[in-house]
């Protein structure tokens, strides 16, 4: 497990995460697509776990390809703001060999702290 920033689409029940192609997390998801996303609340006690099968986008090869465009969408949704320099962001996505890991929820469980 590692801490990640994610973008959640309630309509499709899908979480999207920016990952680098050469890291263990990405290689593990490519080898065995069964993944879990643990989401903590600010109260420390409440949490949700999203389980599903991972799907990986193509690795960004050009600052303006479809994979880079999706990473821009993920950033906007996850950060809730615009980046200061989109061209720099897109170049970084290429140099870091980033791609999007998508997890469509097949099972969600957790615990909520009651008032």
UniProtKB/TrEMBL annotation:
UniProt keyword annotation of Lyase present: no
Keywords for the protein's UniProt record, in alphabetical order: Oxidoreductase
Gene Ontology annotations for the cellular component aspect, listed alphabetically: cytosol
InterPro entries for this protein: F420-binding_dom_put (IPR019920), F420H2_bilvrd_red/Heme_oxyg (IPR052019), Split_barrel_FMN-bd (IPR012349)
Keyword Cell inner membrane attached: no
Gene3D superfamilies referenced in this protein's UniProt entry, alphabetically: Electron Transport, Fmn-binding Protein, Chain A
GO MF annotations in UniProt: coenzyme F420 binding; oxidoreductase activity, acting on the CH-CH group of donors
Official protein name in the record: Pyridoxine 5'-phosphate oxidase, Rv1155
Species of provenance: Rhodococcus wratislaviensis
């Amino acid at each position: 497990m590692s801490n990640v920033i994610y973008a959640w689409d309630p309509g499709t029940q899908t979480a999207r995460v920016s990952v680098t192609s050469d890291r263990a997390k990405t290689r593990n998801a490519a080898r065995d697509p069964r993944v879990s996303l643990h989401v903590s609340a600010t109260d420390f006690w409440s949490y949700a776990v999203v389980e599903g099968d991972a799907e990986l986008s193509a690795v960004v090869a050009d600052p303006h390809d479809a994979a880079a465009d999706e990473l821009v969408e993920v950033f906007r949704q996850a950060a809730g703001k615009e980046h200061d320099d989109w061209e720099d962001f897109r170049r970084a996505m290429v140099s870091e060999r980033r791609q999007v890991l998508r997890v469509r929820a097949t099972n969600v469980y957790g615990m909520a702290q009651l008032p």
